[in-house]
Amino acid sequence: MSSARCKPLLRWYAHNSRPLPWRQTTDPYHIWISEIMLQQTQVKTVLPRYAAWFELFPTIQSLAVASLDEVLKAWEGLGYYRRARFMHRSAQLIVDDMSGSFPTTFDDILSLPGIGRSTAGAISSFCFDTSTPVLDGNVKRVLKRWHAEPDVTDKQLWHRAQQHIEASESPASWNQAMMELGATLCGPKSAQCASCPVSSHCESAFRADSINTASKRIPVLDVHWQVALHICPEKGVWLTQRPDSGIWAGLWTPPIIALDQAPDDVPCHVHLLTHRRLHLYGRAFSNTPDIKGRWVKDFSKLALPTGIHRLLDKHGLQP
C-alpha cells in the first residue's frame, strides 16, 4: 500500500476514532498499562479499571514497591492474572535496573516481562513515534482481508505490517487506525465495506466468501472442582494461595480438590474461562484444615477469582 493509499485510512481515523483516555497521552507508563489491560479484554471493561489503576499506582515506583497481593487485588476481575504479575516484575526491573525510567528503545521495551513484539511495537510507536508495527488480532484480520490471504503466515504478516507502517509516514496514528478499523468496521464475523475508507484497495471488499476469517472455536473443557469451605463465625473462611502457575495462579481461594468426574450433585457455581468451564461444588466444614493457609474475615485486601467470589456469595460468605 503506497503512502497515497494510506491517507484515506488516516483521515478516517482522525475523524472517527473513539476518544479513549490512553489516546490522549504519550506517557509510556500509561500507554504500557493500557496495552496490557487491553490484551484479551474488552475496551468497556478496561475503561473504569484504567482510571482506577493510577489512583492506586500513580507511578512506576509506586507499582514496584507494592506487594504482589496489592497488585493482584487491583487486577481482580480482569482475568489472565499473569499479566499483572509480569507488570509488577517489570516495574521492579525498571526501578532497579533502568533508573526508574521506562525504556525508550524498542529492544529494551521488548525485554520487559510480559511484553511481546506487538505490544512493544504499540508502546514504542505511540510514545516515541517509531515505525514499529502492531500485529494483534484486529490488525491480522485487516491485513488478511486487504490482500485476500486468509492462510498467510505470521512471518509474512509482519512483513506486510512493516511495509504499511513505513509507507504511512505517521507510525503512531497508523497503528491506532489499523486497530480501530479492525475493532469497528472490519469485524471478525462481518465487515462494513460500504463505510470502510480503504475498501477500494481491499481485495476482499464486498465479497462475503472472503470476509469471515474468524478462527475456529477451540473446544471448551469441563473441569470439576470441589471447593472446601472451612467456616468459622469468628474468624471467617480458610483461604490458601494458589500455585504460581495454572488456573488462578497466585490468587486466594478456599482449598480446592480436582475431581476426576462430575458428581451427582448440581454445582454451586459454573464459571466460564476462555477454554475451560469450571464446575464448582462448595462443601461446608467447621474445622481448621491441615493445609497451608489462613483465616480471612475481610477479603478486601486479597485477590480472589471472580468465580470464587460468586461461590462465596451464594453461600452468604461475602463480607
Estimate the helix proportion, in percent.
40-55%
CATH architecture annotation name of the largest domain: Orthogonal Bundle
Span from first to last CA?
Answer: 58 Å
Number of domains: 2
CATH class of the largest domain: Mainly Alpha
CATH topology-level name of the largest domain: Endonuclease III, domain 1
DSSP helical segment count: 13
Overall 3D geometry?
globular
Largest sheet: 7 strands, mixed
- Uncertain runs are none
CATH superfamily of the largest domain: Hypothetical protein, domain 2
Strand fraction: 5-15%
Pick out its properties.
319 residues; alpha+beta; Endonuclease III, domain 1; Nucleoside Triphosphate Pyrophosphohydrolase; 2 domains; seven-stranded mixed β-sheet; 43% helix; 13% strand; globular
Describe the structure.
- With 319 residues, the protein is of the alpha+beta class.
- The protein has two domains: 3-211, Endonuclease III, domain 1, CATH 1.10.340.30; 221-314, Nucleoside Triphosphate Pyrophosphohydrolase, CATH 3.90.79.10.
- The chain has 13 helices and seven strands.
- Strands 1, 2, 3, 4, 5, 6 and 7 form a seven-stranded mixed sheet that branches.
- β5 and β6 form a beta hairpin.
- The radius of gyration is 23 Å and the shape is globular.
- The N and C termini lie far apart (58 Å).
